[in-house]
């Protein structure tokens, strides 16, 4: 296992993002379509927040059957993405080591970190990315 491996080697570079003007129904659609758990919220190329699937579940029936769609629509219309997303983010640069990223994620209560270079969102790394990296080492 290389000690100074940068997070850029394991981060997702194909970013699926939301804009503050998007609605929570779009967020749910993206979570389900791409089978992901975290979506950065951007303004231009800059990240302004992070929405997790857990955030959405807290206010909805998103994990229930399709019959709950009309209930979700009503609940989703009560909130904006900005009201639900996490705003005070910790981010790292693409040259941050995987070890440093693992330490940040282990110490905090979240499971994804945005990767930002020169104020531009360039990727996202999750605990799943870290686990997959470790599994490849064995």
Automatic annotation (TrEMBL):
It comes from Flavivirga aquimarina. Residues 11-68, 85-138 form the CBS domain. The keyword Thylakoid does not apply. The lineage of its organism: Bacteria, Pseudomonadati, Bacteroidota, Flavobacteriia, Flavobacteriales. The keyword Cytoplasm does not apply. Keywords: CBS domain. InterPro entries: CBS_dom, CBS_dom_sf, Diverse_CBS-Domain. This is CBS domain-containing protein.
